[in-house]
Amino acid sequence: ILKFHTQIMVLLMRPILSHILDQNRSAFLMRRSIQDNFLLSQEVVHSFAHNMSKVACVKINLSKAYDKVNWWFVKNELNLLGFCIMTVVFIAWKVPGSAPQGGCSRETPCPPTCSL
Fold first, then answer.
1. How far, in Å, CA of 34 to CA of 36, rounded?
2. Which of the residue ranges 33-37, 42-46, 62-66, 94-98 has the most confident prediction, judged by mean pLDDT?
3. How many CB atoms sit inside 10 A of residue 92's CB?
4. At what angle do helices 85-94 and 2-20 cross, to 10 degrees?
5. Rounded to two decimals, what is the model's pTM?
6. pLDDT tens digits, one per residue of 15-51
7. Which of these, 90, 91, 93, 95, lies nearest to 104 by C-alpha position?
8. Transmembrane ranges (predicted)?
9. For the chain, how long is the longest CA-to-CA vector?
10. Residue 28 contacts by C-beta under 8 Å, 6 or more apart in sequence?
11. Contact 29, 17 (CB under 8 A)
12. How far is residue 21 from each of residues 2, 4, 17, 84, measured CA to CA in Å?
């Protein structure tokens, strides 16, 4: 069921992703792969290695970035982009970490106003 819901979300968001995501973004867009980032970073490090100037590289761990998203901001932006309220509630209901507060849980039905 989750895969079905995910496919619906993808179909709803696909037309606007290219407009709301930066063109330098490798993931989440058709015909782009996150692996392009690895190739690009290898090329940059290689060019720095052959350059005589001093360079510093910083590795940032983004594995937990998904957990630190401000879901209120995301819901607000989806509303501003013109998504209907039921779509925003549906997305918020399915995304881990954005569960409604105030006694509602994923296991029990929750009215749409509780998620906002």
1. 5
2. 42-46
3. 20
4. 120
5. 0.33
6. 777 677 666 666 666 666 777 777 877 888 888 777 7
7. 93
8. 78-96
9. 62
10. 17, 21
11. yes
12. 24, 24, 6, 20
